[in-house]
From TrEMBL, chain A:
Record InterPro entries: AAA+_ATPase, ABC_transporter-like_ATP-bd, ABC_transporter-like_CS, P-loop_NTPase
Entry keyword Glycoprotein: no
SMART domains documented for this protein: AAA (SM00382)
Pfam (any one): ABC_tran
Record-level Gene Ontology MF annotations: ATP binding; ATP hydrolysis activity
Domain ABC transporter: 5-236
UniProt family annotation: Belongs to the ABC transporter superfamily.
Ranges in a coiled coil: none
Entries under Gene3D superfamilies matching the protein: P-loop containing nucleotide triphosphate hydrolases (3.40.50.300)
Protein source organism: Geodermatophilus pulveris
Matching SUPFAM superfamilies: P-loop containing nucleoside triphosphate hydrolases
Name of the protein described by the UniProt record: ABC-2 type transport system ATP-binding protein
UniProtKB/TrEMBL annotation, chain B:
PANTHER family (alphabetical): INTEGRAL MEMBRANE PROTEIN-RELATED, MEMBRANE PROTEIN
Record-level Gene Ontology MF annotations: ABC-type transporter activity
Residue spans crossing the bilayer: 16-36, 56-85, 106-132, 165-184, 191-210, 244-263
UniProt-recorded name of the protein: ABC-2 type transport system permease protein
Organism lineage string: Bacteria, Bacillati, Actinomycetota, Actinomycetes, Geodermatophilales
Organism domain of life: Bacteria
UniProt keyword list: Membrane, Transmembrane, Transmembrane helix
GO cellular component: plasma membrane
Pfam families, alphabetized: ABC2_membrane_2 (PF12679)
From TrEMBL, chain C:
Domain of life: Bacteria
Lineage of producing organism: Bacteria, Bacillati, Actinomycetota, Actinomycetes, Geodermatophilales
Protein name listed in UniProt: Outer membrane lipoprotein-sorting protein
Keywords of the record: Lipoprotein
UniProt cross-references to InterPro entries, sorted A to Z: Sporulation_related (IPR052944)
Organism this protein belongs to: Geodermatophilus pulveris
Length: 306, 270, 366
């Protein structure tokens, strides 16, 4: 598959601080890519380098097959972005804001502008918006308007930084549905977030950033693949140990982890021995466990000298 | 792009408030002058003000002379300082650049919008001055207007020279606009950028009065501001007008180049 | 990568600034073509060029702060300020000189019948008659007029050549006048002349031991075509207040009558007395060319005011002879002796020469 975003040895140094330290991103067409990282791990700096806002100290960025920031004028019209929250001119209406941003660069045909604006407003759930200035919008409405601006030219790639910020649970579900629908239509989505649950529900591929380095980059399905063990919930842990001698890897309250990738076989042995089984599942690591294992401590933690 | 910047600027209420406030001072001066009939003594007060009592058609020029030293540059510095830094502060700059607006194109569009702002402001001041002047004072007693050199100018000549003066004052403000624009690319605070441009102007005005600074006086951005008076001498004294235009051109060129060098290589982190 | 691009762009801007900053000094440093013209010939060319018509823009800057009373500020400002003048010259009695100020101008239009003085800010047009003696006025400070006046009485052995320089975009040849009189406070006068027309383009007056000229007047722009007559002529505008200037001849005659009746010596401080038309007999003018000394007996009531003005100057020297002060090459002395009349001595002479002259003045009416 063709890479939609590719970086090689991407470095950004601020003085002696290496904010981004040699990142090799690989986002393929059709991905919903979850870009995970704690606050201060270099996520935002990386996103800004992808869009040509921050110029890399070293390394290369390729967007839709072309070098950034050199080819920005050709590439960026095909990219929709939401970086660190929406921003609009508060004294103008939402429609005027969209019209201005569309007219500010290439690739936004004046002829279709009005229709496209109405369409994206409809898509993000602002179809009935009036002439109120953006100043009077709620946080959620502004977030939706920011998303509308990103969708205005039906981009091939969406780069979204915390897109569900400020939305209520219904709003989050709506936006998630919208992104999945766009993705089904062929849009690649690059989603930068620190909300593991959001990424876990949306993404097909995940990259994890820790202290400026890409510590993990893989298919979500592979990361959370079964470990080869089975989790058994039972009120009688000691009897499980007795029945499955040597196969118990660990026990915690009523939860016993048993070696064996076939829950049916485990169940059959326990039930035949008369051990009550209240729950049974293949063991899969959660994304949280994967990320914590890979990234270590939070970057905004400041340790005292020991 | 330029159209976008013009729409942003002129759909902004603050722009028109600034222009309105700018007009308040000349109108106040006109009303006081009408009520008291006290012309400034020769050598004091803004140019043309003493002549207004006998000829109201000169008030647009007096109004320009009133706002030129301080009010107009402040207004221009504030709007220019806001050009890039204001977008950065509001966060809209990153969306403009990711659109992509192109950094050089954005700078040029901002400069053109600033020029339009200066021109509109000067035109409004002149127009309000004309209306106020001709209503409060005698329009023209004998048909001709007396030039600074004591010759008579016909209405056509006066209109032509007034138009040139408006153009000259507009160009004079471009230096301020360029300073504001340059500082605006250095900082994310519109206030700091405007204050920076004003600091340059205050320094320039101060040095201009200082004998020790006379070697650099011809290069001070405020040096030729009052040369629009020369357009009303007969024959017109072009020397300072031409130099004023050239100097503003140099300032705009250099500062735009500096703004370009800074802005096109700058990390936008706002 | 980004850092290198940044550096390159800033370097380009720095280069642009450097070129622009260097440009004026490079243009100023362009050498002027010197021509092998003897000093005497150049001086003769200047004296012959009195009828050359021209128009231009001149600036005169003086460092002569005269401690004089308020009544003479207009004349005193001429020597202490920067005066910008536009001039249209068709001849000695047909020309126009506008003193340009930031907010107005004062124009003097000379025609054969007299002068019109237009003051824009006051809105007045003043008609005056040609006078043989008047206070220094802006036209007197034009390089052309001043240079010619200072060269007219110089002897050939006082005048030497002094290289060439560019003035108002023209190659000007230098003439240096070093006055021979020991009493003179003027070290030298440099007159820079356009050799083709004989028009002085710049005049610099240097006091003794002074690196900077005490008076520097030069053209900034010059056009050597005779200006049209309608630019020089003046008709008072309809809304102007038309005034008539006080009759200076009458005033001077009156002042001469009121002055204490003294007879001045034929020589003061080694300078011979000379006569000018229009100068009343009570006023003695001594010297020649650059070195001039005037002796004027003054009534006691005027002397009091002048003494206050003089003693206010920190450099004033007061002794038994009176109070004297120098402003650059210009000396001014109030001579007061018990029982005798008071005199004002002024001119381009040293303070020592002023003291010597004071001793030679007659003590009382004879």
């Amino acid at each position: 598959m063709t890479p939609v975003i590719r970086t090689r040895g991407l470095v950004k140094r601020y003085g002696r601080l290496r904010a981004v330290d040699g990142i090799d991103l690989d986002v393929r067409a059709g991905d919903v890519y979850g870009f995970l990282g704690a606050n201060g791990s270099g996520k935002t700096t990386t996103v800004r380098m992808l869009l040509g806002l921050v110029l890399p100290t070293a390394g290369e960025v390729e967007l839709l097959g072309e070098r950034m920031p050199r080819a920005g004028r050709r590439v960026l019209p095909r990219v929709g972005a939401l970086v660190e929250g929406p921003a609009h001119h508060g004294h103008l209406s939402g429609r005027t804001n969209l019209s201005l941003i569309d007219a500010a660069g290439p690739g936004g045909s004046r002829r279709t502008r009005r229709a496209r604006i109405e369409q994206v407003l409809e898509q993000v759930g602002l179809g009935g918006i009036d002439r109120r200035p953006v100043r009077a919008y709620s946080l959620g409405m502004r977030q939706r308007l920011g998303l509308a601006a990103a969708l205005l030219r039906r981009p091939e790639l969406l780069v979204l930084d915390e897109p569900t910020n400020g939305l209520d649970p219904q709003g989050i579900t709506e936006i998630r549905e919208l992104l999945l629908e766009l993705n089904r239509g062929g849009t690649t989505v690059f989603l930068s977030s620190h909300l593991l649950a959001e990424v876990e529900q949306l993404c097909t591929r995940v990259g994890v950033l820790g202290r400026g380095r890409l510590v993990l980059q893989d298919e979500l399905a592979r990361l959370t693949a079964p470990t080869g063990a089975t989790v058994v919930h039972t009120p009688e842990v000691t009897r499980v140990r007795a029945v499955l001698d040597g196969r118990v890897l660990g026990a915690d309250g009523g939860r016993v982890v048993v070696r064996g990738a076939d829950p049916a076989e485990v169940n059959a042995r326990l039930v035949s021995a008369g051990v009550p089984v209240t729950g049974l599942a293949l063991q899969r690591p959660t994304l949280e466990e994967v990320v914590l294992a890979a990234a270590g401590t939070s970057a905004d933690r400041v340790e005292g000298p020991r | 792009m330029i159209g976008v910047e013009l729409r942003k600027l002129f759909r902004r209420p603050r722009t028109w408030v600034t222009i309105a406030v700018l007009n308040a001072l000349p109108v106040l001066v006109a009303v006081l002058l009408q009520l008291t009939d006290l012309a400034p003594r020769p050598g004091e007060g803004p140019p043309f003000l003493s002549a207004v009592l006998t000829n109201g058609a000169l008030f647009p020029l007096a109004a320009l002379a009133i706002v030129l030293p301080l009010f107009l540059p402040i207004a221009v510095a504030v709007v220019a300082g806001d050009a890039v830094a204001g977008e950065a502060q509001a966060g809209t700059l990153r969306y403009l650049l990711a659109r992509p607006a192109g950094r050089t194109r954005l700078l040029l569009a901002k400069l053109v919008a600033l020029m339009a702002f200066v021109l509109v402001t000067v035109l409004v001041v002149a127009a309000v001055g004309y209306v106020v002047g001709t209503t409060l004072f005698e329009a023209q007693p004998t048909g001709g207007t007396t030039s600074v050199s004591g010759t008579s100018l016909t209405q056509t000549e006066l209109a032509g020279r007034s138009a040139m003066a408006i153009g000259y004052v507009t160009v004079s403000m471009l230096g301020v606009a360029a300073f504001g624009l340059f500082f605006s690319t250095l900082t994310d605070s519109p206030l700091a950028a405007a204050l920076g441009a004003l600091a340059v102007l205050v320094t320039s005005s101060l040095l201009f009065t200082l004998d020790a600074a006379s070697p650099i006086a011809p290069y001070l951005p405020t040096r030729y501001w009052l040369a629009f008076v020369d357009l009303f001498r007969d024959p017109v004294l072009w020397r300072d007008v031409v130099r004023g235009l050239a100097l503003q051109g140099v300032y705009v060129g250099v500062l735009l180049a500096a703004a370009w060098a800074n802005f096109t290589t700058k990390d936008v982190t706002s | 990568m980004a850092a290198r691009g940044r550096l390159a762009r800033w370097a380009a801007v720095a280069l642009l600034v450097a070129v622009l900053v260097a440009l004026p000094s490079v243009v100023a440093a362009l050498p002027a073509d010197d021509a092998d013209v003897p000093a005497a010939d150049l001086r003769a060319a200047v004296l012959d060029g009195a009828d050359v018509g021209f128009s231009g823009y001149a600036v005169s800057a003086g460092g002569l702060a005269l401690p004089v009373s308020d009544r003479l500020t207009a004349a005193a400002d001429l020597f202490s300020d920067r005066t910008l003048m536009r001039v249209w010259w068709r001849g000695p009695d047909e020309h126009r000189v506008d003193v340009v100020a930031a907010a107005g101008e004062t124009g003097v239009h000379r025609d054969p019948g007299g002068t019109w003085t237009w003051d824009f800010e006051a809105g007045t047009a003043t008609r005056g008659l040609p006078a043989s003696l008047a206070l220094p006025a802006p036209p007197d400070l034009l390089p052309a007029a001043l240079g010619r006046r200072l060269l007219s009485e110089a002897t050939d052995d006082e005048v030497t050549r002094a290289g060439a320089r560019r003035v108002a975009g023209r190659d000007a040849l230098g003439l240096r006048v070093a006055p021979a009189e020991p009493a003179s406070s003027v070290a030298r006068v440099d007159v820079w002349v356009d050799p083709a027309s004989g028009l002085p383009l710049q005049v610099e007056v240097y006091g003794e031991d002074a690196a900077l000229p005490a008076l520097d007047t030069r053209f900034l722009d010059l056009d050597l075509a005779v200006p049209p007559a309608d630019v020089v002529a003046f008709t008072p505008p309809p809304d102007a207040t038309v005034l008539t200037a006080p009759d200076t001849e009458g005033l001077i005659a009156e002042a001469g009558e009121r002055a204490p009746d003294v007879s001045l010596p034929a020589e003061l401080a080694g300078l011979p007395r000379r006569s000018f038309t229009g100068v009343p007999g009570a006023v003695g003018v001594y010297g020649r060319g650059v070195t001039l000394l005037a002796a004027v007996p003054v009534p006691q009531r005027l002397a009091g005011g002048l003494r206050e003005a003089l003693t206010a100057s920190p450099e004033a020297v007061t002794d038994a002879l009176g109070t004297r002060v120098a402003a650059g090459p210009l000396g001014l002395m109030l001579v007061e002796r018990a029982g005798g009349p008071a005199y004002v001595l002024t001119g381009t002479v040293t303070l020592d020469a002023l003291a010597e002259a004071a001793r030679q003045l007659p003590g009382a009416a004879s």
